Amino acid sequence: MASPKIMVIDDENIVGKMLKVSFQREGYTVETFLHAEPALQRLSEEKFDIVITDLKMKDIDGMEVLKRIKKESPDTKVIMITAFASMDTSIEAFREKADDFFPKPIKIDELKSRVKKLLGD
Amino acid sequence: MGAFERIRDKLTFWRSKKDPSSFAVLFDRFQTVLKRNNEILEIMADMGDKLGGDYVFDRQYIIDITHRLNDQVYKIIYDLNMLSSQKYVDLYHAYERIHSQIQAELEGKIAYADERLVIDFEDITQDDIASVGNKNASLGEIKNVLKLSTPDGFVLTTKAFYDFLVQNGIDELLENMNIDLERDGSALEALSREVRDKILNGNIPAQVAREVRNHVSAFRSKFKKEKIFFAVRSSAIEEDAEHSFAGQYESFLNVPDDKLLEYYKKVIASTYSVRAWGYRLQKGFYEHEISMAVGCQLMVKPRCSGVLYTMDPISGENDTMVMSATWGLGVPVVSGETPVDRYHVSRDAPYVVKHMNVVHKSEMLVAKEGGGTETIEVPEDLQHKPCLTSDEINHLAHVAMLLERYYKRPQDIEWAIDEEGELIILQSRPLKVQLGYSGEFCMLPDITKGQGIIFEGRGDVVQRGVACGTAFVIRSDEDIEKVPFGSIVIARHTSPKLTKAIRKALAILTDIGSPTGHMATVAREFRVPTIVNTGIATRLIRTGEEITVDATQNIVYAGKLKELCLYELTQDEVFEESYEYRLLRRILRKVAPLNLVDPHDEKFKPKGCQTYHDIVRFVHEKAVDELIHIGEKSSKWLSSGLRRLDLDIPLGVSVLDIGGGVDESAEGNLIDANLVRSIPMKAFLKGLCHEGLWGSEPVSVDLGSFMSSLTRTFSTSVATPEQVGKNLVVLSKEYMNMSLRLGYHFNIIDVYISENVNDNYAYFRFLGGVTEITRRSRRARFIANILEQHDFRVEIRGDLVIGRLKKLSKKEMEKRVILLGGLVAYTRQLDVLMKHDEHVNHYEEEFKKRIGELLN
To answer: What is the domain-level CATH number for residue B399?
Structure first.
């Protein structure tokens, strides 16, 4: 079986870098994007199993990214991450069918086990 | 409102109150200090954790957590000053200093560590990294901590660099540049030229020039020479850290001392070469992160020199190191211009040469008379000769492995051997190695299969990582000094004093201790794999035993698991390549290092605080002191509220309950002992009233002893009337402070026990007696022995015994306080009985027998 594909979208370089290394070590294929627009473009070309996206980004809001993914590729799981976690935003994210919601800083092990679960391992 | 106005306001507020607060209020304040102390240590642990690679964090995290930390540190200083009637306002200065440095980092200003412009290599350690740059800090550490031979000399600091930029207006130029250098190559070229011109034509600040001249003339007179020659080397912040920057900045050899400043400018200018600048942009560095310190090392005249890699970065063979060597200066080895000798040597003693390739060396680079270098012909007889003897290979290999173990990474080492045959280390920096494992990452279970496990899953991991080495068990404070480099340190409990040993340690295991204590913070800072609270490490492991600590999986193996360590050594640390990571690490350097270790040290003052950790350590120590002191004098506040404790033994004790120390159902002036709820007091009473310890028969005093007591006066420390007169105990749920006069001696017992290990402490002071000093000293020794056997740190001065204990779990603390109770009861009149030295042992055994059942 081909390795599961993960996309990370976050306008802070470090987030993509760290997640890429961590998930590659586990055998996933990982692509990272600093901006939402090219990420969505890429998603229209190829199917990803999981998208991990920041909620607050400069160009397109993470919530918008979530809506568009869920509309175009409902099977793709989406995990929202944010440094500004509040009850309201997380409720809204879940209402828009986010599969999970992580406040930053994120413990990588927890994210990993969440990803595994979502992929049904 | 600035910090000092705020302080002034608070001072006025304080003075306006006529009466200092009641003991209960002060005690509350003390508890706040404890709470904050824990909170701060937890914040620091949290920040340290984030550097471990287990978390994803961003800039917002750094801003938030730093803000929380600033706030708590400021408030803990305020609390201590409230507790101590403003005895420590100087701490605010220390706070302001550190705070503004952290702020500068966050705001992206060029930061320098302190005001020093020039520092001698003899005074440099890793702590000075922000002043002298990575390369120089590492050289200083090698010289002054590892005590290996490195060139003498001095460093022009990042502050000197900063002053130079400011004096010549270059800082403004850099701040105001408004071009996208990454995309616009020609703009970078133009700016690079402009900045370099400004630097090369710039004026050296007068103070910098003066200090350099002073250092040069000191070396001139030391070596009795008219002219001294230097190697002038770049040492930027972050250079040689995770990014190698190899060859990005310029260095110059054999510079005559009168041209030092000219070449200093050349090195600085190379910071802004198109190549170096481009490299930084490509790696995502911001300009304010760049600060250049310059090392001026006395020129070494080497017979031969070269480079050593402690692992073969190319073949990935994990049991081999590679040495390259040539005659004369080592530049050709580094630049790869000419063929050089190459030796493949085993990484393990006795360092067997596995492969040797000796080439024909016709030319060599040497120092030219008057300055600079020149290439000359190698004498005929040396051209085909290997540069290194087998002894030299062996010694070099040994030193290289020492450096690798110390820095916990494969090393890239520049070395030289002088005419006298002495090995000199010129530089040592991390080497990136990809191991030749088949998969992307090797399987841990394969490596560890079949290895004997000493224990696993015990205790709390403080810092993850793997190390194998020889165990060294610390049994006393003196042992801390004796820890050999590269040992695995095993200790009974964590202690700030252990921080001295952390640099020498490959890993640390303790029986007892807190993962957020002071020592843990430092272990994290130095990335030393550490597990605390194992409960059994000192019992299961002996000094000299070879073990492997896997603090990632929380397993300790018997024997050396070399594969596991290699795996650890070569783990790629990509996280370290991002700006946020570097920013957090730089901030943590101003937060976490602990310099104030020993309260008896003269540097243990607000002025000596260089980091937030120092401040917090200082505050904690002084807060406990204040409380003990307040407790001693508390009777002056006790006009009312005193009740008596009803005990089975003939002892009158007055009780002041400041909250939760006595059950609410207790009525009237006499409190039943069963209604005491204070955790430490309950434990203390258990020991004090235990049958067989409180001897009911009074001891007959021989006449000599009695006469001596009549002529004796109480020493000043116990002479205040309120102390002599009364047995008093101040209680809360977690706290007791007892002043006790029994017969002719005087005790103070001050204890705090809660569920939070970090808060817990016990203080025990014992003085006086009826007999002459020899017998009293015997008893002091008896008490000291007992206390030491139960983990107290003990000081004896004549017949005064002070025992201190900190940070054990609630259960362990209770046991120790039961012991104190027993000890107080048992020793009431023991001095009278101690006619001979042998009695010390006799009564020790007797006491252990009697107290034994209570402690199990």
So the answer is: 3.30.470.20
